[in-house]
Amino acid sequence: xxxxxxxxxxxxxxxxxxxxxxxxxxxxxxxxxxxxxxHFLGYVAAGLSISLACPRWHLxxxxxxxxxxxTLIEIIQHFLPPRTFDLYDIAANxxxxxxxxxxxxxxQKPLRHFGLPV
Length: 118
What we know:
Blueprint lengths: L1 H21 L12 H19 L5 H20 L8 H27 L5
Helix pairs in contact: 1-2, 2-3, 2-4, 3-4
């Protein structure tokens, strides 16, 4: 039951990221924000999320999945004006993925204490 809940939250995260990544207005419209910081923090959350949803996957498999997903979103953005492909976004995403996965690795023991399947 708990594994299904974790998988559901990860699917919801992917749906939200896909919508934000492919919508014409961008993540927050005209509000001033640091785009790369949002990419980084979003993928820190994604690294944690996929680790809860897919605990049997190796860390490198989780990272490769998220980096591939992130790169695919950027490629699709190239074909959706006014969105653009940006290597800096992929770098920020990759950095966030790495931090999220490492953070999860550090938190595995405390998470087991709460009965999470990690």
